[in-house]
């Protein structure tokens, strides 16, 4: 089945710094989503981005489907950005089940 | 996010106990999901219900028994669990069944099996 790899696994930032999180996938996808899980466990969808670029405030995401990767950019990080960022994809051959990466654990220090 | 609620938020149970997790969605969605989240593992899809009919059971042991009385409510009945079943159990919903729609998650139930 399709493999989803996220990097880096862990990241520590000082407040105000910028960062780039990466998601690589091993096969064609129909859908790619980025999620943020806060330290209390709540998962929130950030972007639905099978291709192209989207921006939402300090966050933006780019997916290059032909090269099988997606990037999540966090600018001017805040302590509230801490948590785990997950990438989840929908394999082109299986339109039912999202396949999840292991996530990038981000800690933003004041 | 208050669109999907889960109770209880925390649960400690012995291996011989029977307990139930509850999920309710207020978004008018047709599909509901149970996921298991364990440390160092990707989220594992357990069950999917579409219009209250079960459409996916991803080889989940029978000690986990789902119930979906209507499109807004989803239960996970637990009995004779094992310590390795300790995890965060997440409920989600989406407008349609399948991964093409954004899934909205509840806050999860942190389960500890002693």
Description:
The complex is a heterodimer of chains A (110) and B (114). With 110 residues, chain A is an all-beta fold. Chain A is built from no helices and eleven strands. In chain A, the strands form two sheets. In chain A, strands 2, 4, 5, 9, 10 and 11 form a six-stranded mixed beta sheet that branches. Chain A is globular. The model of chain A has no long low-confidence stretch (mean pLDDT 94). In chain B, the strands form two sheets. In chain B, strands 2, 4, 5, 6, 9, 10 and 11 form a seven-stranded mixed beta sheet that branches. In chain B, strands 1-3-8-7 form a four-stranded antiparallel beta sheet, with no helix packed on it. The mean pLDDT of chain B is 92. Chain B is mainly beta. In chain B, a hairpin with a 2-residue loop joins strand 7 and strand 8. The interface between A and B is medium-sized, with 23 and 23 residues.
Oligomer: heterodimer
Element pattern of chain A in H and E: EEEEEEEEEEE
- How far the N terminus sits from the C terminus of chain A, by CA atoms, comes to 41 Å
Give average pLDDT of chain A, whole number. 94
Number of helices of chain B: 0
Major pleated sheet of chain A = 6 strands, mixed
Principal-axis shape of chain A: globular
Portion in beta strands of chain A:
over 45%
Instruction: Give the termini separation of chain B.
Output: 31 Å
Average pLDDT number of chain B: 92
Number of helical runs of chain A? Answer: 0
Helix content of chain A: under 10%
Number of strands of chain A: 11
Say how many strands of chain B there are: 11
Helix-strand makeup class of chain A: mainly beta
Q: Which shape of chain B, going by the Cα principal axes?
A: globular
Radius of gyration of chain A equals 13 Å
Q: Roughly how many Å is the radius of gyration of chain B?
A: 13 Å
